[in-house]
């Protein structure tokens, strides 16, 4: 897979991990406003990353909030176990 | 319902062909302290626990464990991908290969099939949360041993990530448990 796509996926992974951590923390600390605000910012950033990956023609989520850029992307771009 | 993302939660790289390691790893796929057991355990405890924090946490951790399951599957798949039947046999996977080929099967390292008995559900919030914490600690202990069983630094890195996640999960479950215990007169 091309350099640009891999770089975006790497950012997505790191940012996504921060979102998971914030989500679990907020499950047990629901009134922690500071973390909630941080999480909102992380999610905003994640959306931008999704969009740039889609512009590169890689479909991360099939038909979740936007149709895939090409129908062949979901089928033919590598699955997680086909990468690396 | 669930939404699937076509990526791993954390990258999995395999630098070294090691069939024996695949056999050790498969216990985290379908063994008693594996990721399938973890996900299904939390998923099924959600319905009766009542505490809002606990329901949310069980849902979110159950979901994350599925992403871990996919990481383990990727490790096993990659380790078995190029192995010859003879190599599989010498790693103790001869019977596995004859029965299942290279399909991933939910078993422990000795081929014992997954059972819902692993979930050990008790219908009691305190007992279930103790079970959940123990499950996370047992999974952490397994990952520590798995890290010792390979000298592939890339694989160790992914296993270290999974180990750290178990610590976070254990911590979050403890927070819920302590609060529930404070609210219960015992
Ligand atoms: Fe876990």
Brief write-up:
Chain A is an all-alpha fold.
Compile the SSE list and pairings:
The complex is a heterodimer of chains A (84) and B (186).
Chain A: H1 3-28, H2 33-55, H3 71-76
Helix pairs in contact in A: 1-2
Chain B: H1 19-25, H2 27-30, H3 35-45, H4 52-81, H5 85-90, H6 94-100, H7 125-148, H8 153-183
Bound molecules: fe (ii) ion (FE2).
Structure explained in plain terms:
- The complex is a heterodimer of chains A (84) and B (186).
- By secondary structure, chain A is mostly helical.
- Chain A has helices at 3-28, 33-55, 71-76.
- Chain A has one domain (2-82).
- By secondary structure, chain B is mainly alpha-helical.
- Chain B has one domain (19-183): Ferritin (Up-down Bundle), CATH 1.20.1260.10.
- The mean pLDDT of chain B is 95.
- Chains A and B meet through helix 1 of A and helix 4 and helix 8 of B.
- The complex binds fe (ii) ion.
- The site of fe (ii) ion has 7 residues of chain B, from helix 7 and helix 8.
| β-sheet strand percentage of chain A | under 5%
End-to-end span of chain A in angstroms? 9 Å
Number of strands of chain B: 0
Q: Could you state the order of secondary-structure elements of chain B as H and E?
A: HHHHHHHH
Characterize the biggest β-sheet of chain A: none
| Mean of residue pLDDT values of chain B | 95
CATH class of chain B: Mainly Alpha
Total strand segments of chain A: 0
Number of helices of chain B: 8
Q: Quaternary status of these chains? A: heterodimer
Keywords:
heterodimer, A: 84 residues, mainly alpha, 3 helices, B: 186 residues, Ferritin, elongated, binds fe (ii) ion
């Amino acid at each position: 897979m091309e350099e640009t796509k891999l770089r975006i996926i790497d950012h997505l992974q790191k940012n996504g991990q921060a979102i998971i951590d914030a989500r679990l923390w907020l499950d047990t600390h629901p009134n922690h406003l500071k973390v909630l605000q941080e999480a909102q910012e992380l999610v905003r950033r994640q959306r931008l990353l999704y969009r740039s990956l889609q512009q590169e023609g890689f479909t991360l989520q099939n038909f979740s909030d936007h149709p895939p850029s090409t129908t062949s992307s979901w089928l033919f771009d590598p699955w997680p176990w086909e990468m690396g | 319902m669930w939404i699937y993302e076509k990526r791993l939660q954390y990258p999995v790289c395999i630098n070294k062909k090691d069939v024996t390691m695949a056999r050790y790893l498969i216990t985290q796929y379908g063994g008693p302290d594996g990721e399938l057991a973890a996900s299904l355990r939390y998923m099924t405890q959600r319905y009766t626990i009542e505490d809002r924090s606990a329901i949310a946490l069980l849902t979110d951790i159950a979901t994350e464990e599925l992403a871990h399951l996919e990481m383990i599957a990727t490790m096993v798949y990659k380790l078995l991908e190029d192995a010859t039947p003879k190599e599989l046999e010498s790693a103790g996977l001869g019977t596995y290969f004859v029965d299942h080929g290279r399909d991933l099967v939910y078993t422990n390292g000795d081929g014992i099939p997954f059972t819902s008995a692993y979930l050990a559900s008790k219908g009691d919030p305190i007992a279930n949360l103790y079970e959940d914490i123990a499950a996370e600690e047992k999974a952490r202990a397994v990952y520590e041993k798995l890290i010792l069983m390979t000298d592939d630094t890339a694989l160790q890195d992914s296993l270290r990530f999974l180990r750290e996640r178990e610590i976070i999960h254990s911590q979050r479950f403890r927070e819920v448990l302590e609060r529930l215990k404070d609210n219960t007169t015992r």
